[in-house]
Amino acid sequence: EREGGLRFRQAVEDATLTLVRGRAGATAVFCVQDMLAAAALEAADAQGLPLEVSTFNDWPAPMLRHPWRVHRI
User: Fold this and answer.
1) Which helix (H) or strand (E) element contains residue 28?
2) Residue-wise burial string across 2-17, b where 16 or more C-beta atoms lie within 10 A, e elsewhere
3) In angstroms, rounded to a whole number, what is the distance separating the alpha carbons of residues 16 and 28?
4) What pLDDT score does 14 carry?
5) How many CB atoms within 10 Å of residue 66?
6) What residues contact residue 73 under an 8 Å CB cut-off, 6+ apart?
């Protein structure tokens, strides 16, 4: 969903929880779109999960809720 609706946010939250709490125990994710990066950070914050994000896109860093946790390429 391009608008980041409820299903989009739920899908990102499910994926984030699976990666962080799953067997891999991920501490970081790479997102190919800033909208995914913002949703991943929001999901991690909602669950109290520490998560670093790498992304390459053209949103200015202040558009992200926690720009210091996003490594932009």
Assistant:
1) strand 28-31
2) eeeeeeeeeebbebbe
3) 10
4) 92
5) 14
6) 54, 55, 56
66 φ, ψ to 5°? -130, 75
Mean pLDDT by 10 residues, the chain (73 residues): 75 90 87 85 87 77 69 68
What HEC string does 29-73 produce? EEECCHHHHHHHHHHHHHHCCCCEEEECCCCCHHHCCCHHHEEEC
Q: How far is CA 43 from CA 16, 40, in A?
A: 7, 5
Cα–Cα separations (whole angstroms), residue 1 to 9, 28, 36, 69: 9, 23, 11, 24
48: number of Cβ within 10 Å:
6
